[in-house]
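Request: When convenient, would you put together a sequence paired with its structure tokens?
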Amino acid sequence: MPSELPSWAQDPTLQTLAMFVGSFVGAYLVEVLIRRTLVALAKRTRTELDDAIIAALRTPVFMSVLMIGLYMTSLRVGLPETARFTVRATLETLAVIFWSGAAFRIGHLLLEVVSSRSHEGSIIQRRTMPIFDMTVKVAVVTTALYFTFLAWNIDLTAWLASAGVLGIAVGFAAKDTLANLFAGIFIVADGPYKVGDYVVLDGELRGEVSHIGVRSTRVLTRDDVEITIPNAVIANAKIVNESGGPYVKQRVAVNVEAAYGSDVDRVREVLLSVVPGVENICATPHPQVRFREFAGSGLRHELLVWIDQPALRGLILDQLHVRVYKAFADAGIEIPYSKHDVYIKEHARPAG
């Protein structure tokens, strides 16, 4: 039979203090165990996903062990029923918060990995990832609230009934915000554009998409001005994605008229001669010239070239316009302008 404990070890205050300190010691030992086993094993693998998952779990595991020890210590103290309930509910709420944070990080990491390995036709892709990321966050928050209510013994029936009435009121009050939210989900799902694309909205606003959110989209114009557009507006707008299509290349046209009587073969030759030397014009497809129509003032021709970067369209058009004007002047080809002859007919005055 083991000898009885010393009198000082039987002191309830010292035993409670020992349990309190033991909570921290136990949590620390669990942390050391994880660091020397799981972390060490994860470092030997080629992927970094397991390292990130273990890093996300270390804090909630440490805090869970600590809070279990603290709760056992509170039972040893002999608190009143109300105080004991408050301590338990508070510790459970803190545990829910820590584990929810870990669930956020792990869910985002898993979606990142799946989307990076996706292929055409996969449900989870780079452009659809924000939808699933938001879904995971909503699910985690909903679950966290559910367990928090359970920890505090809150009846969810009355809350759900109140939430239904409140939801109707909020729906009417925040209809524009909800419209932007759902429009953002559809934009991400349909993928009419992505970050980095050059788009034109309703034939007016042109710029590079810098951010796509669930509420709005930000477009950086050529004036280096970032414009935030509600997704509900974009959902009802005509979108021209200059970076879309099977290729990034974009065709640029220079329209010019030659006076009637000009040699059309010479016009074609002069237009093609201005292309060499202009940077950022693709070698293939080759530049082309089209005789479009017999216009009111002259013969309308169109010089077509292809560029790789839509952002350089304005700069390239500027260079081509200057070169075409100078080349026509050197070749003696007249660029007509609109002319109108006005005849004034004088009426004879009646004899009087």
